[in-house]
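Subject: sequence -> structure tokens, single chain

Hey, anyone have a minute? Need the predicted structure for the following. Not urgent.
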Amino acid sequence: MNRPLIAILRGLTPSAALATGQALINAGIDKIEVPLNSPDPLDSIGRLVEEFGDRALIGAGTVLTPGQVDDVARVGGKLIVSPNCDPEVISHTHRLGLESWPGIFTPTEAFAALKAGASGLKLFPGALAGPAGLSALRPVLPKGTLVYAVGGAGPENFGQWIAASADGFGIGSALYKPGMTVSEVAAKAAQIVAAYDEAAG
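Reply:
Had a minute. Here:
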């Protein structure tokens, strides 16, 4: 089952990348983002792509410039996630044929992102908007627009977000924190997948 869950591995080190990636894929999470403010992120992304690129969508988060998009593309990353809505970054990502998931919070940002070629929208920070914020935004978005809630969305409230029309989620510290063992990550991933499956029915 291809679940709409993106694992956000902020702080991941290259030496832990493969074991962590394997644990996530085994649990049923096959979209993996390594934020660029992690240690040697391009090394981690390159290793993950080489090992799992045929069965997982691998890429970078906290991507702020077109140059960083190029860096991620060079190591084989296909997923570009940003905390903000920068049309230049989005359109460059789109031109390269990569998935672009910019952070948006307002209708203005949402429409600017879609116009620039975003694959989907990352409602961030989700904790501030809440499910009610997404419910209010949804009626004006073009039909079929994918919106993932990130920051404040997790196993304890998947159901509320899905009821508010969330298409998927980015999961960070609820799933991974630097220093966690692979078995801890595996246990968290299994819990999150089970909670999502239950909420999604």
